[in-house]
Model the fold of this input.
Amino acid sequence: MTHADLTPHRVYDPLLRLLHWTIALSVVVLAATSQLAEAFEHGPEETALWNIHLIGGYSLATALLARLLWGLVGPHSARWSDLWHPATWRGLLRLHVPSTQRAGHDAVASLAYLAAYAVMAMMAASGLGLAAVEFEAGPLAAWLAGAEWLEDVLKAPHEVGFALLLGFIGLHLAALVFHQLRGERVAQSMVTGKQYLGTEHGARHD
Ligand code: HEM
Done:
C-alpha cells in the first residue's frame, strides 16, 4: 500500500499526548538520576541527584493519576477500553497476530502498556514510601517518617520494577523502530495525534 492510499485519522488528544511525554520524560529522569546517584554515592552531587529523583517521582505520580482519570472520562482513544483487547490476547496464545491496524492503540501493544502502567503505579507507590522513610519527604512523610523497617520492604519491588521498566522501554522503542523501517508511521502519532490507516480498516475502533 502506498502512502497515497492512507487516510489520516485523528486519535490521540493533546492531553493524552502531554501525559505520554510527561511520563516518558519523568521515567528517563528517574532512571538516569537513580544510576548517577549510585555512581556518585557519598560525593557532593548525591543529595542534588536524589532531590531531582524525588521531583521526577512526584511528576510521574501526578501524570499517572491524571492518566488514570483521563482513561475514565477522556475521549474514545484515551479510554481504558481502548487498551482492553482480551480476544486479541487469547489469539496470541494460538499464535494468531492481527494483520490489520485499528484506529487508536495497537491491540497487542496495549497488553504491554497496561503491564507498564501497573509497574509504574507500583514504582510510584513504593517510591513515595521510600521518599517518606529515607528523606522524610513527600505526601506520605506525615504517616511513614521514622518507619525504618519499611525501607527494605519497599526497596526490593522498587528495584525489580526498575528492571521491568527498562525492558518495556527497550521493547517499546524497538517496536516503534520496526514499524518505521516497514514504512508505517506509528511513532509520529504520539506527536501529531494522527494515525495514517488504510481506508478498508481505518475506521475500526474495536
Ligand atoms: C521512556 C520512554 C517511553 C515510555 C515510558 C513510554 C510509554 C508509553 C505508554 C505507557 C504508552 C501507552 C499510552 C497511553 O496510555 O495511551 C505509550 C504509547 C505510545 N508511545 Fe510511548 N513511551 C516512551 C517513549 C516513546 C517514544 C520515544 C515514542 C516515539 C515517538 C513513543 C511513541 C508512542 C506511540 C506512538 C504510542 C501509541 C502506539 C499505539 O498506537 O499503540 N513513545 N508509550
Summary: The radius of gyration is 20 Å. Helices lie at 14-39, 46-73, 86-93, 107-135, 141-144, 150-181, 189-192. The chain has one domain: 7-198. The pocket of protoporphyrin IX containing FE is lined by residues 16, 20, 23-24, 27-28, 67, 105-106, 109, 113, 116-117, 169, 172, 176, 186-187, 189-190 (CB under 6 Å).
